[in-house]
Automatic annotation (TrEMBL):
A motif (TonB box) lies at residues 50-56. Residues 67-168 form the TonB-dependent receptor plug domain. InterPro entries: Beta-barrel_TonB (IPR000531), Beta-barrel_TonB_sf (IPR036942), Plug_dom (IPR012910), Plug_dom_sf (IPR037066), TonB-dep_rcpt-like (IPR039426), TonB_box_CS (IPR010916). It is a multi-pass membrane protein. This is TonB-dependent receptor. Belongs to the TonB-dependent receptor family. Residues 226-610 form the TonB-dependent receptor-like beta-barrel domain. Its main location: membrane. It comes from Massilia forsythiae. The keyword Transmembrane helix does not apply. Transmembrane segments: none annotated. PROSITE patterns: TONB_DEPENDENT_REC_1, TONB_DEPENDENT_REC_3. One of its GO terms (cellular component) is cell outer membrane.
Length: 638
């Protein structure tokens, strides 16, 4: 885990040989989906409507969305018994992850081949992440607090501003509804893993109803060595972690159509890693905190207003020796104020948003004898508008946003069109622009950053076809996202000796995502495949740590009181470096899980991860878990 050197990204940036044309598999996929849809349209009623918030910043039925979206429900998370948010995401289409060791170590999430710092991450609408690395602390997000995850693919800068090049991941924490309810679990497994969690949720009655949810959890593991022989700083000792967290949300109905609320999430992770062969307990302490207060009002039958004031803090302390020089700390604080107005105009929706975000960084190294050049503040003011139209079988949306910060003003826009061929079968097409703001490291880190670095820019076009009827879901999405002014490590650095972060590269993220789900003989089947070509156009190399092919298959079956399932995840070869010199082999992972419902509120969870004990690498010379098992007794968790 190497957050200690903020001038070096946790995962290398860009670099790939030309891929075979994607137009032929795309045409085949669309033809098959269209034929299947024509055959089955009207055969059964549509699936129950799924409501998505992130794609348009307002609740919207999934069958009326143009953006490519995946929703992971709390029921799916609980059923799978997954160990972390990253483990949940890696089973979704269009997503790859990289870990520098075990579950407590630095984790990167790639959407459609985009860099980890080209993805916006939200917790209940609050943006999180480090302003120095540009990456969210995925290892510190507690899965026990999560109720639902929404992933929107493609450029969303016109709705969310900087960094939404690859997409947006929004994590929703648990909320109160219905009668008061208690849930809890305790479990353990391989590598000395122990997990305990408890939560209470509910809603009080009356005119001024109060909804509440409060949860706490503790997790720890002895772990395994974060590095393997050949890695810098290799130490064969076990690198464990512990994480404590609490989350809560309260809303009050002030009057019909008027609601006030507050929410928080606090998580502290203590994780060991390898930086030398010494006996010193080399470790990081990662604090991830988010807070928000909000007011939702319906001033008129067609006018909804939402105001939110939020703060997110990402604090990373590293300890590499007993000496004062072996201690460093990098803290990011983001304060954000947003005012969103949603106006219904018949079947259409107009949305206007105003935003203010202040980023502050405090960096202390070796006792802080001198002020760090990273101790900076950046303010971004934004205004955005979007318009959604529905006309019979036609869907339209258009959005635009203006962000202004010290790097100047950036205007982004997007437009999309959808057509409903028949019940359950629709085609979509969209274009959009996006950008990523330079991180504080890329601007100010000594010997690396350049204050003249400009934002990265993206231009995306995509087309998709979806079929959703009864127990059958089919999807195909083709995208082509061209990136310019990419910030990479240039050596030599223009205008000075040595290397530096510099706007020099162009990249192309091109791919086809296929997905399918059905119910056959009582078995829920789901599969996805990504055929992609993420490459650095400047060097014509494959982007580091991203494969050209990856896929996932799962099957779930319920018989009586037993709910069981199997998952298969597969990835093709990748390269660990931008020059494509260090190859990472492809791999396939088999996971098994099952839940036995012992009584109306009690259940026993069993999960076997990497059942075939596959040896593989997500990053060169970093360890990954072998065959592991986990078992838990649950109360009130389904």
């Amino acid at each position: 885990m190497t957050h200690i050197l903020p001038g070096r990204p946790a995962a290398p940036s860009f670099a790939q040989p030309p891929a075979r044309p994607l137009s032929r598999p795309l045409a085949l996929a669309l033809a098959l989906a269209a034929a299947f849809g024509a055959q089955h349209a009207g055969a059964a009623d549509a699936l129950p409507d799924t409501v998505v918030v992130t794609a348009t910043r307002t609740p919207q039925r999934a069958d009326q969305l143009i953006a490519d979206t995946t929703v992971v429900t709390g029921e799916e998370i609980a059923r799978s018994g997954a160990g972390s948010v990253a483990d949940v995401l890696r089973r979704q289409r269009g997503i790859e992850i990289v870990r520098n060791g075990g579950a407590g170590t630095s984790t990167s999430v790639y959407l459609r081949g985009a860099n980890a710092n080209q993805v916006v991450v939200l917790i209940d609408g609050v943006r999180i992440g480090s302003s120095t690395s540009g990456v969210a602390a995925w290892n510190a997000i507690p899965l026990s607090a999560v109720e639902r995850i929404e992933v929107v693919y493609g450029p969303l800068s016109s709705l969310y501003g900087a960094d939404a090049i690859g997409g947006v991941v929004q994590i929703f924490t648990k909320r109160g509804q219905g009668a008061p309810a208690l849930s809890a679990s305790i479990g353990g497994g391989t590598y000395g893993t122990n997990q305990t969690q408890a939560a209470v949720t509910g809603t009080s009655g009356g005119e001024h109803a109060v909804s509440y949810a409060l949860g706490v959890a503790h997790e720890e593991a002895d772990g395994f060595s974060a590095t393997r022989s050949g890695a810098f700083g290799y130490n064969p000792d076990d690198d464990g972690y512990s994480r404590n967290n609490a989350n809560g949300r309260v809303t009050v109905q002030l009057a019909p159509g008027h609601e006030a609320g507050a929410q928080f999430l606090k998580s502290r992770l203590r994780a060991q890693y390898d930086s030398s062969a010494s006996s010193f307990d080399t470790r990081n302490t990662q604090d991830l905190d988010s807070y928000a207060v909000f007011l939702n009002d319906r001033f008129l039958p067609n006018w909804r207003s939402s105001v939110q004031a939020a703060r997110a803090e990402d604090k990373l302390a590293s300890y590499t020796s007993t000496a004062l020089s072996g201690t460093s700390r990098i803290d990011t604080r983001q304060d954000e104020l947003t005012w969103q107005n949603t106006i219904d105009l018949g079947p259409d929706t107009l949305q206007v948003l105003f935003g203010h975000r202040k980023e502050e960084v405090l960096s202390v190294t070796g006792g802080g004898a001198a002020p760090s050049p990273l101790n900076k503040t950046r303010i971004t003011n934004s205004v955005a508008a979007s318009y959604d139209m529905k006309r019979g079988s036609h869907l339209f949306d258009v959005s635009a946003r203006r962000d202004h910060a010290e790097y100047g003003g950036k205007t982004t826009g997007a437009a999309g069109y959808g057509y409903q061929f028949s019940k359950g079968l629709r085609a979509t097409a969209s274009v959009g622009t996006s950008f990523r703001a330079p991180t504080f490291n890329e601007l100010y880190y000594p010997g690396y950053g350049l204050p003249t670095n400009r934002p990265e820019r993206g231009r995306n076009a995509e087309a998709g076809l979806r079929y959703d009827i009864a127990d059958v879901e089919l999807g195909a999405n083709y995208y082509r996202n061209r990136l310019t002014d990419m910030i990479v490590t240039a050596n030599p650095c223009p205008g000075r000796a040595g290397s530096c972060a510099y706007n020099v590269n162009h990249a192309l993220l091109e791919g086809l995502t296929l997905s399918a789900a059905t119910r056959l003989a009582g078995i829920d089947l789901r599969a996805s495949a990504d055929l992609q070509d993420p490459r650095d156009e400047t060097t014509n190399k494959q982007l580091a740590r991203r494969s050209k092919r990856h896929a996932a298959v799962s099957a779930n079956y319920t018989a009586g009181q037993v709910d069981s399932g199997v998952e298969l995840q597969a990835s093709g070869r990748r390269f660990d470096d931008a020059a494509n010199n260090n190859r990472l082999g492809g791999y396939g992972l088999l996971n098994l899980y099952g839940t036995w419902n012992l009584a109306p509120e009690w259940s026993l969870l069993l999960r076997l991860e990497n059942a075939a004990d596959k040896r593989y690498e997500l990053a060169r010379n970093y360890g990954t878990a072998g065959r592991t098992w986990f078992a838990a007794i649950r109360y009130g968790i389904r």
